[in-house]
Amino acid sequence: MVERPDHEGVQPHPEDGRPGSGTDIRISDTGRVEAFSDGVFAIVITLLVLELTSPEHEPGGLLAGLLHQWPSYVAFLLSFLYIGVLWLNHHALFRRIGRMDAPLRWINLAILLGVVIIPFPTAVLADTFAEGHSVRDERVAVTLYALAAAVMSAPWWVVFTYLRDHPYLLEPGTSPAYFHAQRVRPLTGLVLYGICGLTGWFISPVVGLACIAIMIIYHAVTSEGLREGPLSRLSGGRRA
């Protein structure tokens, strides 16, 4: 049996990225990183509800006040779904990772950075769509949300590429080809979220929001991979 590398003082093998003796690269299991990441997701998704507050109202006007806050409900549901989908993707990713090294930990932090930003464009979106704001402000709010989502796609492309090139970090039975195939997903997100932002700016903020919602559904359907989950039943694809 070949012993799995779990020590310091290793360097990638020139052919397949396996560690060998040489430079100081710490290899560890995924437990602490997963626990920390799940904690971040839990905190961020909880913070969203803080934007839902009891409305100011005259006696007898509570229902009208609650209905007046509909933009906050829409923004909350959209971002709750988005963070939930990101967590599903993150969970699916780590089911295929057996070990962590320092670069991979930094890439994971970059993914989490994108997650913790979400409450900000969510609050802007909810506030801007409230009564009294101009259509131009709504365009800015939708474009801001779309840009945040587009930028968030970048570290996912990096992590898929890194794991493809460092197969010794993967769980046994996981092929680097799986991560090579997944690289198209964040690129698709980067481009299409950008298009959603342009749609919200030049055509209609509501259409831009609908475009963002469709992209979130796309990432939900493909959370297990392009050839796995619901898409595998539709296309007859196999696991990479």
Automatic annotation (TrEMBL):
Residues 1-24 are annotated as: Disordered. It catalyses: K(+)(in) = K(+)(out). It is a multi-pass membrane protein. The chain crosses the membrane at residues 35-53, 73-94, 106-124, 144-163, 190-221. Keywords: Ion channel, Ion transport, Membrane, Potassium, Potassium channel, Potassium transport, Transmembrane, Transmembrane helix, Transport. Pfam families: TMEM175. Its main location: membrane. Residues 1-18 have a biased composition (Basic and acidic residues). It is found in: Membrane. Belongs to the TMEM175 family. This is TMEM175 family protein. It comes from Streptomyces pathocidini.
